[in-house]
Write a structure and sequence with these properties.
The complex is a heterodimer of chains A (257) and B (310).
Chain A: H1 3-23, H2 25-28, H3 30-47, H4 59-89, H5 94-97, H6 103-129, H7 140-164, H8 170-184, H9 197-203, H10 207-220, H11 227-251
Chain B: E1 3-13, E2 19-29, E3 33-37, H1 44-51, E4 59-64, E5 67-68, H2 73-78, E6 80-83, H3 95-105, H4 110-123, H5 139-151, E7 157-161, H6 169-184, E8 188-192, H7 196-202, E9 205-210, E10 213-219, H8 220-225, E11 229-236, E12 253-259, E13 262-268, H9 273-282, E14 287-292, H10 296-309
Parallel strand pairs in B: 3-8, 3-9, 6-7, 7-8
Antiparallel strand pairs in B: 1-2, 1-4, 4-5, 9-10, 11-13, 11-14, 12-13
Classes of the chains: A mainly alpha (257), B alpha/beta (310).
Chain lengths: 257, 310
């Protein structure tokens, strides 16, 4: 395939992916809006109003970056894992596998679909947040880069989950038992400075902590983690996961017998 | 001679240890209409899966128009259109979107994809249903949708894995006409089917796979020429009572009475059927209809497969 043909194939897959989640927007966009709206009301307003400031910000302001990023993480992951698994389960992944589309384009198409849904939901959650507080942006470059990189990273995660999944249970196990606990323990609702030193050290092993703190830096200018370290870890994960996904596609794991 | 498909020493062993292909050799010429037959589990779908890169081979080589699938996979794939056995499209997408997306995956610009989608959906009688969700289509329509999808990038080789399974006679015959047309226009067609009449009517060459090996690979005509005897059913206008008393079979012609108005006769290729009719006429038997007892290819197929089992 020449470059023009590759672009056409890539655009086709991305459009297909965006249409898919847009067509079922009641399942894909509305639920996270309701869930995060409840977080803002319960944690931000009702409980947060009783708490003292953290790093000079009200509790509501402090949790907004993490909640937006949580929505991005969950939706980027969910989009790719469900879409790719369905295409595998119903065999229409074969439409792409028989075509001359290179594997990296297939991967990139699904990842961009996941990023698109993650950003769409993240944007809607940010708009919901404006009903409760003023949105601060401390650094646009940091904010945008962390949002995009995190969405890419979790889209890749969803892709790996879908490749290994053999049943619908398999696509919900990782989000339920790994992703949600790591997200909640990643410092959305607290600063790790508030934890005993042992748990601070344990928290440093959670990759989501770095993303949430980088996001918080982008919006508020405060972070528990050095920004350079946070980006280094995020980029490292993106590179490793992208390479692993390509390896899986090239070997046909889960999609070719 | 240009080969559309060249397979050498193809082996496939699945993870569960099943040795599905045990050294397949096949050559399909450009422009051929090629039948790949075999009983269930013989290795037909595995072979097609490997050609279309949906199944990883264990060893051997596969070339499409001279392009090796190991070293020039993308080019080789661009020549192939696949109509699989099972429905493999998104049931929640409209028919036209399925065809257009497939064109897109082959890098065909949208405008050209639209023209091609219209052309093939029209030819296959699906244009009126283009906005219907795939799940709303009948079984025959779904099969035709898969053919339209496989043709949208105008492949040089079209592979059909049991394309007429489960469709009614009328649609099956219209699909035969359509496939014959595109073959005449230059598309090489490789077909697997369980309807041996289909293979006999459509295909120029035939290969029979059994237990993972090719047990026959030849021209359809030469395969059928191997049949020495054919069995016919004759229907008499009147009751046969007593008219065949003292009948003596001729060399190359054996006759049996099935019921009071029906005869069954085995006739060798050397025997003139006129002699039989003359004899029947002299005994006052008027034959009002005649048909072959079974599909000729079916007889050969059963014979070859049984031979393989023994």
């Amino acid at each position: 395939m020449n470059l023009q043909q590759q672009l056409t194939a890539f655009r086709t897959l991305v459009t297909k992916e965006i249409r898919r989640f847009a067509r079922i927007w009641v399942q894909t966009v509305v639920p996270p809006v309701i869930t995060t709206g409840l977080y803002f009301i319960i944690f931000g307003q009702l409980i947060g109003s009783q708490l003292s400031a953290i790093d000079g910000y009200s509790y509501m302001d402090y949790i907004v970056p993490g909640i937006i990023l949580m929505a991005i993480i969950n939706n980027a992951y969910a989009n790719v894992v469900s879409s790719f698994y369905m295409s595998k389960f119903s065999h229409f992944i074969e439409e792409m596998l028989v075509s001359p589309m290179p594997n990296y384009l297939i991967l990139a198409g699904y990842v961009v679909g996941g990023v698109a849904r993650g950003l769409t939901v993240g944007l809607v959650v940010a708009i919901i947040a404006t009903f409760f507080t003023d949105i601060n942006i401390y650094s646009y470059p940091v904010l945008f880069s962390v949002v995009i990189l995190t969405a890419i990273l979790f889209s890749l995660g969803g892709f790996i989950n879908a490749i290994y999944a053999n049943s619908f249970d398999d696509i919900s196990i990782i989000p339920t038992f790994v992703l949600i606990p790591l997200t909640y323990l990643g410092g959305i609702f607290y600063s790790i400075d508030m934890l005993p030193s042992f748990w601070q050290s344990v928290s440093l092993g959670n990759p989501i902590l770095y993303m949430i703190n980088a996001m918080r830096y982008g919006m508020l200018g405060v972070s528990d983690i050095h920004l350079g370290t946070a980006f280094a870890i995020i980029i490292l994960f993106v590179v490793v996961l992208f390479s692993f996904c390509l390896y899986l596609l090239n070997t046909g794991k889960g999609i070719r017998s | 001679m240009t080969l559309a498909l060249e397979i050498k020493d193809l082996h496939k062993t699945y993870r569960n240890g099943m040795h599905a292909l045990k050294g397949i050799h096949l050559e399909v010429k450009k422009g051929d209409f090629f039948a790949l037959l075999g009983p269930n589990g013989a290795g037909k779908s595995t072979t097609i899966g490997i050609i279309s890169s949906l199944v990883n081979k264990s060893s051997g080589t596969v070339k499409i128009f001279g392009y090796d699938m190991d070293t020039e996979l993308e080019t080789a794939k661009s020549f192939i259109g696949l109509v699989p056995q099972e429905f493999n499209f998104n049931q929640f997408e409209p028919a036209i979107e399925i065809v257009m997306n497939q064109a897109g995956f082959y890098g065909i610009p949208r405008k050209l994809a639209q023209q091609r989608a219209e052309k093939y959906l029209q030819q296959l009688g699906l244009w009126e249903k283009r906005y219907a969700m795939a799940r709303e289509l009948s079984g025959g329509m779904k099969r035709r949708l898969m053919i339209a999808r496989a043709l949208v990038h105008e492949p040089k080789v079209l592979i059909l894995d049991e394309p007429t399974a489960g469709v009614d006679i009328e649609i099956r015959r219209s699909m035969w006409r359509f496939l014959t047309e595109i073959n005449q226009q230059g598309t090489t067609i490789i077909l697997t089917t369980h309807y041996l009449e289909e293979a006999e009517n459509l295909c120029k060459h035939i290969a029979i796979i059994n237990n993972g090996i090719v047990v026959e690979n030849t021209e359809m005509k030469s395969l059928l020429a191997r049949l020495h005897m054919e069995t016919f059913i004759l229907n008499s206008r009147d009751c046969l009572d007593g008219k065949l008393d003292n009948w003596q079979d001729h060399p190359g012609c054996a006759l049996r009475v099935v019921d009071e108005t029906t005869l069954e006769v085995d006739i060798s290729k050397q025997y003139s059927i006129n002699a039989l009719f003359a004899e029947l006429d002299s005994r006052g038997i008027q034959v009002i209809s005649m048909r072959t007892k079974s599909n000729r290819l079916e007889e050969l197929f059963v014979h070859l497969v049984e031979e393989g089992i023994q």
